[in-house]
Amino acid sequence: MKDPANTTQRQQAHQQGLLTSIVSLPLRMLGVLIGSLLLSIIIECVGMHLFWPDLGWRHAQAMLDYELNHLSSHFTRSAVVQEPGRTAHQLVEGAYEWIFEKTGLLDWMSQASARSRAPSQADARDLRFYISQVYVWSERYLIAAAFTTLTFMVRLLVLVLTLPLFLLAAFVGMVDGLVRRDIRKFGAGRESGFIYHRAKASLMPLAVLPWIIYLTLPVSVHPLLVLLPSAALLGLAVNITAASFKKYL
């Protein structure tokens, strides 16, 4: 016979773990977004050095223009926000104003660029000369990082707009899985804890990886090429998890 005290302790531990997961979920999502932003900037800088040295920071600018034009032409209506294209332009303009204009970063970059290029043409190789060379070398990476950040914000808006797709896929998979579970419960189907635990463990990666992949892509692609297969896989994982859940509670 099972010990009631041990059963109660396990239930309390499970409830505490569930509560901790729910409370820490916003922080974990914030960590995923910050990590994706840093990774996208690193990929863009590496690509500037290895794959598109001729384009330089204009590659990041072209991605931003593509994302904005694509959002304006294809996302004309949404259940999350009204006028997604206009919202994206307002988001980018507001971020540009706060990051560059109100902080004075744009004026500082212009002044620093003018001061740094003046001694770079002199014959004397003093400390200012080497500082100017470092700034001239890093300036294009800073500009690329700024455009990559704005592109990241537009893609994040696209992901927010496509949240109903993932919720619908998960809901359909859960309903179909529960029906299959009832058929197995009232029939002679086998109960497999191995399949259940493996399918359950894949839910979080399938929900998070599409965000990381889409946010860090160094090229512009149609969002559905990444998000539609990801939503289908998430729905399949939810379906298998619900269908393989134990027959008797």
UniProtKB/TrEMBL annotation:
The keyword Membrane applies. It comes from the Bacteria. Pfam families: DtrJ-like (PF14348). The chain crosses the membrane at residues 30-52, 156-179, 199-217, 223-245. Keywords: Membrane, Transmembrane, Transmembrane helix. This is TIGR03747 family integrating conjugative element membrane protein. It comes from Stutzerimonas azotifigens.
